[in-house]
User: What shape does this take?
Amino acid sequence: TKVKSAEFVMSNSDVAKCPKNRIPEYAFIGRSNVGKSSLINMLTDRKSLAKTSGRPGKTQLINHFIINEEWYLVDLPGYGYARVSKTSKKKFQKFITNYFEQRQQLVSAFVLVDIRHKPQPIDLEFMQYLGENGIPFGIVFTKADKLKPNAIDNHVDDYCKELLKTWEEIPPYFITSSSKKIGQDDVLDFINNTNEE
Ligand code: GDP
Assistant: This one.
C-alpha cells in the first residue's frame, strides 16, 4: 500500500459545499494537538499536506484531499464542546455534526486519541455520538513513540476496558507514531480494504 498521489481539493465549513461526486471518503478528527496533521502527513508521505498546529483560522474547516485519485481524505477541525451541551448530539460544533449526519460518501471516521492519556470524556462522548448515529469509526492512537511497548499495551487495554463499559464490541484500532512512522500500512490497508463496493 502506497500513496502515489495526494492533492488538496477544497476547504469549506459547509457540508453542502463538499465535493458532489461519489468517491468514498475517510474523515480524521480529534482534539487539537492530538497529532492529526502529523498523522495525515505521515500516511500520505508528504511533509506538509496538512498544516500542523499553530494556524487557528484554517483549522475550523472541512478539508478535502484526493488520494490516488481513489478516495478522499478529510481533515476535520479539532472538536470541542459547543456552548450548550445537553444531549450528546448538541455537544459538538454544528458543522461537524452536520458533516457526519449528512455526508453519505463517508465510509469511516478515524477518531484520534493520544496514546499517553487515559480515556478522556470528550473523546468517549464523541465516539458515543458517532455510535448513536450509526457512523462507523476506528480509533487511531497517536504518539506511540512516547511509550515503551508494554506501556502501549497497557494503555490500549485500559482504553478497550473503558469502551466495553458502553460498547459490546471494540472498534478497529490502530497504533501509530508519525515521528517513527509506525502504523502507516495498518491504516492504509484498512482504507483500501473498505473502499471498494
Ligand atoms: P494537530 O493539532 O492534531 O494537527 O497536531 P499536530 O500534528 O500539529 O501535532 C501536535 C504536536 O504533537 C506537535 O508538536 C507535533 O510535533 C507532536 N506530534 C505529532 N505527532 C507525533 C508523534 O507521532 N510523536 C511525537 N513524539 N510527537 C508528535
